[in-house]
Amino acid sequence: MKNIPYPLYDVMEIKNLKELVSKCADTFGEKIAFRFEREKEEVCISYSQFKSDVDALGTALTESKITNVKIALLGENSYEWILTYFAVVCSANVIVPLDKELTASDSKKILDDCGAVALIFSDGYSDISDFLKENNSDIEHYINMKSIPGMLEKGEKLIQQGKKSVVEEMPEDNALSTLSYTSGTTGSAKGVMLSHNNLASGIIAACRNVFIPERSILVLPLHHASGFTGLSCMLVYGSEVAINLSLKILSDDLIKYRPGFTVLVPLFLETFYKKIWDGAKKQGKDNLLRKLVKISNTLLKIGVDARGVFFKSIHSNFGGNLTYILSGGAPLDGKLVNGFFELGITLINAYGLTETVGIVSANRNNYFRAGSVGLAIPCCEVKFSNVDDNGHGEICVKGENVFSGYYKDEKTTADSFDGDWFKTGDIGYMDNDGFLHISGRKKNVIILSSGKNVYPEEIEFELQGIPMLKEVVVRGNTSIHESTDLIEAEIFPDFESANAKGIDDIQVHFNNAISIYNKKAASFKRIHRVIIRDKEFPKTTTRKIKRNIEG
Which of 260, 352, 444, 494 is the most exposed place for a label (fewest CB within 10 A)? Predict the structure, then answer.
């Protein structure tokens, strides 16, 4: 199987999200756009029906004098969430997607900051709606998603009566479309201003790098950039999108809907991969699986792909058709990319931020580098500032997918840009073939007294292969020494696996494992202290470890 450059994919051109909805309806018509379960019955929505629903709901909002305002959206993944998002932005309004994991008080802070006058919410978040009503929120309109069917009926009648402004008027390409609040590992949330053109450009450019098969499954939360951009790319390709309503039934949904594509974060992929090998070991077939992998790899080198046959039982657990998984939101270990590829599933590692519509670069279906985050998407340029002796520097990007600034925060906006270049805060480099590699976050860099920079994320990747290691954070330890030349690793073990293997002293186990790592590591990357913790690290709602917060 050749892993060489090839032309970008040819996809539709759009300048705003309304064009996306219209062109998908024109191109794919009665083809199924969404498939999901409602009250234990399967529901299918065609691309044509989706456009009609978007027009109807947008018309109903306009008739209720909800136009040219900010509308907050709160709820779990659902067709109603997707419909609301597109109806809002296609009817001269700005959507404010709320993180469903936030507390009521944190949600109120965001709503107070952005000045939203309406909240559309699912029934499961009625408590937050009630809290906002009772605590002097500026929200004037509270709309439970249960009322959407009635609003659709009302909007359809209005359109039939000739009220077609929402149907016919096209939004300005550079008009503000989405105000998306970040959820970083430190600091308060910032409102990222994204225009229709920012979103359209990022979505289409991503589709030119990555091909999406005819069936997909939506898993990641839609209020996050990678979730929404992933969904929009599925629509561009006319994919049939199954909506996973709960992670508890994800395994069942994979078998039921038999997708060829999905978007996941590395945490899911690590779990899936571990289950594959743990399952093989429980059945006494792990050695056989290793032998089949070796034979398969040998056949691949001569152009024979037998992975579908050799690993059919593994594929069946994913529905039998899962070929590509786009990974975003956090760094992905190259060993995981190679491991899945050997089994017949290609992990397409990508990189992006909320400020770049969730996409800056992506590996391609048949042209990729394990350990990299791929090639810059066509609408985006990448450069590096303050490059060190190893060629690593801060990643700076510019292009049509880059946001215009932070809402009501001119200082932070100015500090985040160098001219037209957005400073991502991530450190990386580009290899000779143009593949982008991420070294770590600028704020996490350990600067040694010698002047050398140590990127803790790189060391963490190296440690991930240690048995019984579940989570790890590497940092410089100023409590041991006045400088940060002494590096420590704080580890959360897999206690269950350790007990099953009869390991009584976890500290000794990891001390020995780190000693083996240190023998191979450069002297300035060696770990001098190992700390064992008894609970998971605190995490953000996107499952990123909060590195500098105790707990």
Answer: 494
Helices and strands, counts by H and E, the chain: 19, 26
CA distance 348 to 496: 31
Residue that the structure tokens 């929009």 belong to: 232
* CA dihedral angle for residue 518, residue 519, residue 522, residue 527, rounded to 10 degrees: 10
HSE-CB at 296 with a 13 A cutoff on CA atoms is: 21
d(CA 67, CA 493): 52
263, exposed or middle or buried, with CB in 10 Å at 0-12, 13-18, 19+? buried
d(C-alpha 179, C-alpha 176), whole Å: 8
CA distance 234 to 459: 35
Going by C-alpha positions, the residue among 513, 533, 514 that lies closest to residue 525 is 514
Task: Extract the tokens encoding 543.
Answer: 């499952």
Share of the chain above pLDDT 70, in %: 95
Instruction: Characterize the bridge pairing of strands 240-243 and 446-447.
Output: unpaired
Amino acid of residue 484: T
Q: Which superfamily is assigned to 445-532 in CATH?
A: ANL, C-terminal domain (3.30.300.30)
Residue 512: pLDDT over 50: yes
CB-CB contact of 483 with 448 (8 Å): yes
* Res 464: pLDDT: 81
Closest to 463 in 3D by CA, of 346, 335, 348: 335
Burial 193-224 (b: 16+ CB within 10 A, else e): bbbbbbbbbbbbbbbbbbbbbebbbbbbbbbb
CA dihedral 78, 82, 83, 88 (to 10 degrees): 140
Q: Helix 334-343 and helix 266-282: axis angle, to 10°?
A: 50
Distance CA 201, CA 174 (A): 11
Q: Which residue has the tokens 């609040």?
A: 181
Task: Give the angle 250-438-198 at the CA atoms, nearest 5°.
Answer: 70
Give the model's confidence band at 541: pLDDT under 50 very low, under 70 low, under 90 confident, else very high: low
Q: What count of other Cβ atoms lies within 10 Å of the Cβ of residue 267?
A: 15
For the record, the structure tokens of 416 come out as 């985040």
Task: Fill in the DSSP letter of residue 162.
Answer: T
Q: How far apart are CA 86 and CA 83, in angstroms?
A: 5
Q: What is the pLDDT of residues 419-441, one digit of tens each?
A: 999 999 999 999 999 999 998 87
**In the numeric block, which tokens belong to residue 541?**
């709602």
User: What does the alpha-carbon distance between residue 209 and residue 237 come to, in Å, rounded to a whole number?
Assistant: 12
Element (H, E) at 240: strand 240-243
- Distance (Å, rounded) from C-alpha 339 to C-alpha 266? 13
Measured distance CA(372)–CA(472) in Å, rounded: 21
